[in-house]
Amino acid sequence: MKQTDVFVSIPVLEAKIATVDAEVKYAASKLEDDELQNCCNKVGLYMKSNRPYLDPDLTLPKLAQDLNVSTHHLSQVINEMHEKNFFNFINKYRVAEVKRKIQDPKYQNYSLLGIAYESGFNSKSAFNRVFKNVTGTTPSRFRDSISSS
């Protein structure tokens, strides 16, 4: 435990390991590169136009059903193309929605928790944890930095 160098994280190495893990994980997948890209584009368009992340009960199977793709293929697209798991992928959109609403005068009278619920989060603790992980700051500090600008 005293040898802290042993526990130092190496981001480049971790990224390479994650890529290799994804390649091994989906080695048996029948999804070709062009199909993977098409599905990725389909997911991106659907996320922008339908905003399914606003549903706090959104699941991978429900999103796959809405997109008319298999859950395995959707999982592969999210993991390989976005380099995130399903929850991190959805939460990235939710955090972007929170940030947008914090800056929108229409939501000026909403509490941060109210905005979080409106953006698809279903608990205060998850919202605070995810927001800080994605942005590097707390929701209240983010709001305060916007107010002072």
From TrEMBL:
GO MF annotation list: DNA-binding transcription factor activity; sequence-specific DNA binding
Domain HTH araC/xylS-type: 41-145
SUPFAM superfamilies noted in UniProt: Homeodomain-like
Pfam families: HTH_18
Domain of life from the UniProt record: Bacteria
InterPro entries xref list: Homeodomain-like_sf, HTH_AraC, HTH_AraC-typ_CS, Tscrpt_reg_AraC-type_HTH
Keyword list, A-Z: DNA-binding, Transcription, Transcription regulation
The protein's name in its UniProt record: HTH araC/xylS-type domain-containing protein
